[in-house]
């Protein structure tokens, strides 16, 4: 579950910012496997940029209005108990937003491991305290992928 605006520093992030973050996430944090559910939430303000940036990615796109639109969109209609019964054992919670503490606690309550990925958002101490593990994507990792990203995009266009 990705609160993309929190990860990339806000709703005004560029297409390149979103692509860089997602490239680091896919290559250094988790290998997305067939059957994985990747939910990306954004506010209506950022959605157009985010969806364009992630064109071609196998993700579920969710949008909701308001300052907490990204985080609220990924929790709307989410049934973690059902996902746990269906065999999902881990939640990758990509956000530093304290508004998602309830999600982490619910996932733990149904027996799921909760791993937090922190991007450019300021980490909530409360959220960080209730997850099992966490990874921080450093700005230097985002800058390092820029050259590779541009080559990848050129290859896709060819």
Secondary-structure map with pairings?
Blueprint: E1 2-3, H1 4-8, H2 15-29, E2 39-43, H3 44-53, E3 60-64, H4 69-75, H5 80-85, E4 90-94, H6 101-109, E5 113-118, H7 125-130, E6 133-136, H8 139-144, H9 146-157
Parallel strand pairs: 1-2, 2-3, 4-5, 5-6
Helix pairs in contact: 2-3
The major sheet is characterized as: 3 strands, parallel
Average predicted local confidence, pLDDT? 89
Name the beta content range: 15-25%
Helix content: 40-55%
Q: How are strands sequenced across the largest beta sheet?
A: 1-2-3
The residue ranges in which pLDDT falls below 50 over 5 or more consecutive positions are none
Overall morphology:
globular
Query: Which sequence of SSEs, written as H and E, runs from N to C?
Result: EHHEHEHHEHEHEHH
Number of structural units classed as domains:
1
Count of alpha/pi helices: 9
Task: Give a written overview of the molecule.
With 158 residues, the protein is an alpha/beta fold. It has a single domain (2-157), classed as Rossmann fold (3-Layer(aba) Sandwich), CATH 3.40.50. The chain is built from nine helices and six strands, in the order E-H-H-E-H-E-H-H-E-H-E-H-E-H-H. The strands form two sheets. A three-stranded parallel sheet has the order 1-2-3. Helix 2 (15-29) packs across helix 3 (44-53). The termini are far apart.
